[in-house]
């Protein structure tokens, strides 16, 4: 989701959060601050002509239809996994267990690996997957055995990673199954221990899920197999062809052009990202950085102010600051920030765990006890 920090490319793998929204006035302010996107430059960027790569053939070429398809062996595995189960809920659990249990226990033994962006067939063969690859595999198998399964986009706490000189803001998806003869749904995650039902989430279309798959491929390290400039471009173009509404795709394409020194194209694409989502914090930050480097300091300052407002409204940003203050023995500031985080999102156990540590350190026994009690109730 998203979604880029500094000069990085977004990585849609194990984790992602759609950052907490800002007020409508912030969205309006973005449209007043930035110019309208130059459509001619956007079209030129989508053509790839400026990159001098059109003569190259991207490899490997993965067709969108492969991303929710099964081989005969995989279909048989799914059928055997749910054999004897009548209720949808039992089929869901049986299929989940069959994919995760080790081979010695009769399962497939699929393990998590952040960089494992594979088709369902490759995930099944290699027994490795990130959250998106696993979700595509599970949904494909679940549908084969008659279950109403969809890809589910989950807004988990912000998770950042660094790959070389790039900061990557991580996204997370899992699978959701609608149960027949019931109003209930079941969520299946590659790591159920860390999934929380109260995280904001919504089902996305197959096209959006496939779009995120190509985005994953697009941000592969340049030294990885297939991680060439041509592959990055063509995978991002394929992602946009599937779902151009996702602002982080435009953001990533902008960063690709910026890394090639094609700044006018990068600017147009960053602005296009904000047209798609005026609350895209990373697009705001990237565009601010671009304007600062171009000497447009007034524009950069206005965008920085919007980014600050966005961050301040995010409870997980408050949590990060509280953690930083606590590590630096600045306990009063830590307490202020963790209380702000709890006020904005009172149902996050993670916040209360840190609050207990802070209050214990400050000798605030009653506050620590209350925080611990609240944490235990969640």
Could you walk me through the main structural features you see in this protein, from its secondary elements to its overall organization?
The structure is a single chain. 53% of the residues lie in helices and 10% in strands. It has 16 helices and nine strands. The chain is flat, with a radius of gyration of 22 Å. It folds into three domains: 19-61 and 217-298, Tetratricopeptide repeat domain (Serine Threonine Protein Phosphatase 5, Tetratricopeptide repeat); 65-212, C8orf32 fold (Roll); 315-377, Serine Threonine Protein Phosphatase 5, Tetratricopeptide repeat. Mean pLDDT is 85; it is low at 1-27. By secondary structure, the chain is of the alpha+beta class. The strands form three sheets. A four-stranded antiparallel beta sheet has the order 8-7-4-9. It has a three-stranded antiparallel beta sheet with strand order 1-6-5. A two-stranded parallel sheet has the order 2-3.
């Amino acid at each position: 989701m998203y979604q880029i920090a500094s000069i990085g490319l977004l990585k849609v793998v194990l984790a992602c959060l759609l950052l907490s929204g800002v007020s409508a006035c912030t969205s309006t302010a973005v449209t007043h601050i930035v110019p309208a996107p130059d459509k001619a430059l956007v079209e030129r960027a989508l053509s790839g002509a400026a990159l001098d790569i059109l003569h190259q053939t991207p490899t490997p070429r993965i067709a969108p239809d492969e991303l929710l398809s099964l081989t005969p062996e995989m279909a048989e595995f799914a059928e055997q996994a749910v054999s004897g189960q009548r209720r949808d809920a039992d089929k869901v659990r049986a299929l989940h267990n069959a994919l995760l249990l080790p081979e010695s226990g009769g399962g497939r033994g699929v393990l998590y690996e952040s960089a494992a962006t594979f088709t369902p067939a490759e995930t099944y063969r290699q027994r490795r997957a990130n959250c998106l690859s696993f979700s595509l595999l599970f949904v494909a198998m679940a549908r084969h055995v008659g279950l109403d399964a969809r890809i589910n986009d989950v807004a988990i706490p912000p998770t950042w990673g660094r790959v070389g000189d790039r900061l990557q803001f991580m996204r997370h998806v899992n699978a959701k199954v609608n149960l027949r003869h019931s109003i209930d749904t079941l969520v299946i995650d590659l790591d159920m221990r860390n999934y929380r039902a109260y995280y904001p989430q919504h089902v996305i279309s197959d096209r959006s899920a496939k779009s995120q798959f190509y985005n994953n491929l697009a941000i592969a390290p340049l030294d990885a197999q297939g991680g060439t400039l041509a592959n990055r471009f063509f995978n991002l173009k394929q992602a946009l062809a599937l779902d151009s509404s996702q602002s982080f795709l435009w953001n990533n394409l902008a960063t690709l052009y910026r890394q090639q020194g094609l700044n006018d194209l990068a600017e147009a694409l960053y602005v296009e990202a904000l047209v798609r989502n005026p609350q895209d914090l990373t697009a705001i930050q990237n565009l601010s950085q671009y304007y600062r480097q171009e000497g447009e300091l007034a524009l950069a300052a206005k965008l920085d102010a919007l980014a600050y407002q966005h961050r301040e409204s995010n409870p997980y940003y408050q949590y990060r600051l509280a953690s930083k203050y606590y590590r630096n023995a600045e306990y009063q500031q830590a307490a202020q920030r963790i209380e702000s985080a709890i006020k904005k999102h009172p149902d996050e156990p993670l916040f209360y765990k840190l609050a207990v540590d802070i209050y214990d350190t400050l000798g605030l026994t009653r506050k620590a006890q209350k925080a611990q009690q609240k944490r235990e109730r969640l």
